[in-house]
Amino acid sequence: MKAISRTASTTAPSAEEAGARSFARTTRLLMAPAVIFLLIWMLVPLAMTIYYSFQQYNLIMPMYNGFAGLTNFTILLSDPTFWKSLANTLIIVGASLVITVCLGLALALLFNRTFVGRGVARTLAVAPFFVMPVVTGLIWKNMLFHPVYGLFAWVARQLGLEPIDWLAHYPMLSVIIMITWEWTPFALLVLLTGLQSLPEDQIEAAKLDGASAWQEFRHIVIPHLGQVLYVVVMLESIFFLTSFAEIYTTTGGGPGTATTNLPYYIFQTVFQQNDIGIASAAAIGAVILANIFAIMLIRFIAGNLNAGAAR
Amino acid sequence: MNSNRFANGALGVLAWGVALLIFFPILWLLLTSFKTEQQAFTVVPNFFFSPTLESFKMALAQGSGYWHYAWNSALTAVASTVIGLALAVPAAYAMAFYPNKRTDFLLVWMVSTKFIPAVGVLIPIYLVYSAVGLLDNALGLTLLFTAMNLPIIVWMVYSYFRDIPKDIVEAADIDGASIMQTLFKVVLPLALPGLASTGLLALILAWNESFWSITMTDHSAATLAVYIASFKSAEGLFWAKMSAASVLAIAPIIVLGWFTQRQMVRGLTFGAVK
């Protein structure tokens, strides 16, 4: 192996290529553990989920097993809770995306300026992103949203208003508020990193040409941030599609099905109704939904990879 | 010029105001953790009070189980990070320095597994785990955390390896070093800071994870996320204790997070933003 590599890299003009070929077996051995691990923990279960979605399989009724054809899917599609959970999922993703990206962008522009104590202020502003989602849920549910003992209720009373029972009357809004509190810092962090890579001379040139602040923003900042915004939107979509802890600790999907999203619906179908077949069919739906965003994002990452290689 | 300075000052004040507003829920949690249960659960909030460590003592007392959950969190986070790095380093090394035609595909494929939603694989994993006794088991949870973070770890280690000039590795090859010698003697020392921040990111993500911990564990392998989630039905009874337990669970991660902000961005955006 050593001898081959030495001759390959000293004599052949395409030394790198020849070297790579001779190393093929060793490199395959180096990659195998990671690839096999992901196959076992991700792809095999995914295939099994597809298999289960065509099986009649309920944990508490083991006698009724067997191939179910499309029955699970027809039951699922005629279940209003499924449609409700799908709609809720999309509402959470859509609203949280708009709010986190707009707020995150505004805050990134604000924190990109120089002011006293900027580092500390920025550090405080990104902190929620590092808070365990379970803790986020409990802080908001108990100490802020609570209609009697919560801080919001106290503020409302101070202003002479009737306290609002947030989780009972505005459950979806409450969930979205919690998610945006956690994820606006992420958008801020990423967009700020993007802004800081904006070349100073471009801004200077625009200023010299007499561009207004808006023109500068519209024609220099936004195009520069284009890629970054794209990545933020795609990544957040994938994470918002799988929101769970914030709902689990606060509304429990309710009242009724008001905040039941797709992951929570699947969670309930497995652990409360023990219906593996229907839950699997719903899980396939969740995978398809995630794939719509993931494919675009993966294409982008792959494109970046080639650009990086060409450099 | 004067009005400009005024505007700058006002925007600075605004930025600080927003930062404090965003941080406030965490501050409020922190304040509550230093109250007694009576002070924490009041209609008129106590902004000024004599701080006490009573709730922390309660939260950490024997019988609260805090150390059991904290140990599980630490064990699963550290073990999944170590296993993740052990799997990722050889793979990333091969892909970064000895690429072939399939390297790009493999790398993108690995990254893409990150985007399979957890519910998509939940059911089979739950059934298989319960059949082989990995349910409510620290090893079972560790391996799930590993699978969850492996795509990010591979990607980050790969990108740090790519930053190492190829000439150095080629020189080592020419000097007759074997592939493994080059890895341990040349590449790893150079990539050590990158590996450290990758590990830190994996640690944070595993520590904060809640979906798998809630669905796959019950008590013996339950993490802090599961323990804290169990307060969800404690209607006002243990707010101070819950706050103390929460503060202990999130404080180390927030501090680590502040130090790893850049790596976090780099890792979670898969290198699109550095």
UniProtKB/TrEMBL annotation, chain B:
Residues crossing the lipid bilayer are 12-31, 74-98, 105-129, 141-161, 182-207, 238-259
- What InterPro entries does this protein's entry cite? BP-dep_ABC_trans_perm, MetI-like, MetI-like_sf
Q: So what family is this one in?
A: Belongs to the binding-protein-dependent transport system permease family. MalFG subfamily.
Q: Which organism is it from?
A: Salinicola lusitanus
Q: Which domain of life is it from?
A: Bacteria
Main localisation, per the record? membrane
Where is this protein localized, as stated in its record? Cell membrane
Q: Which UniProt keywords apply?
A: Cell membrane, Membrane, Transmembrane, Transmembrane helix, Transport
User: Record keywords: Isomerase included?
Assistant: no
Domain (ABC transmembrane type-1): residue spans on this chain: 70-260
Protein name per UniProt: Carbohydrate ABC transporter permease
**Membrane-topology descriptor:** Multi-pass membrane protein
SUPFAM superfamilies associated with the record: MetI-like
